Amino acid sequence: MVKYKYAYGRIAESLKYISEEMKEFEQDYISKTWKEYKADKKLQKLMDRTVENILTALIEISGTILIKEGIAAKSYIEVLKEIAKLFKFSEAEQEGYAKLAIQRNRLAHRYLNFRWEAIEEYIKQREMIHKILAAIMEKEINQEGEGDSFG
Q1: Which tens digit of pLDDT belongs to each residue from 27-68?
Q2: Burial label, 10 (beta-carbon count in 10 A; 0-12, 13-18, 19+)
Q3: Does a structural domain hold residue 45?
Q4: Is 151 inside any structural domain?
Q5: Which tens digit of pLDDT belongs to each residue from 108-140?
Q6: Is the pLDDT of residue 147 over 80?
């Protein structure tokens, strides 16, 4: 169906972008400590922005898929919870994934007291993010092969 061509392109671009950003985070920032983070304003900005970008792109992809599936969500938290539910993740995984929206907001709105907590939560949830990205990729590849894709 042609009407989803744009959305599919955005999903493919965003999946690639998230993968690259996560790889950069793993290479450059994963081992940084609170002390290093606190002492270096430039490092804070780089880490905060990288995680914020990853989480924002996850929300964008998730929202696009939910729209395609006809599933409504009123907030970023609901978007992430519903996408995890769509992929049949456990309730605990759904809740954990949904909490990433809170972390994204903390970074996006520069809640100074919570930025490091947001970074730590992202680090704890990395495997969940990889799991949801794999599920999205599989869904998109399967749909593309069936001719019922976004494109």
Answers
A1: 999 999 999 999 999 999 999 999 999 999 999 999 999 998
A2: middle
A3: yes
A4: no
A5: 887 667 889 999 999 999 999 999 999 998 887
A6: no
**Token pair for residue 60?**
């964008």
The domain that holds 135 is classified in CATH as: 1.20.120
82 contacts 69 by C-beta, under 8 angstroms? no
Give the number of domains in the chain. 1
Quick one: residue 45, left, alpha or beta (phi over 0 = left, psi -120 to 50 = alpha)?
alpha
What does each C-alpha distance from 90 to 7, 62, 96 come to in angstroms?
27, 17, 10
Find the domain containing 122 and state its range.
2-146
Question: Is residue 102 in some structural domain?
Answer: yes
**Alpha-carbon distance 20 to 99, whole Å?**
22
- Predicted model pTM: 0.84
Contacts of 46 (CB under 8 A, 6+ apart): 28, 29
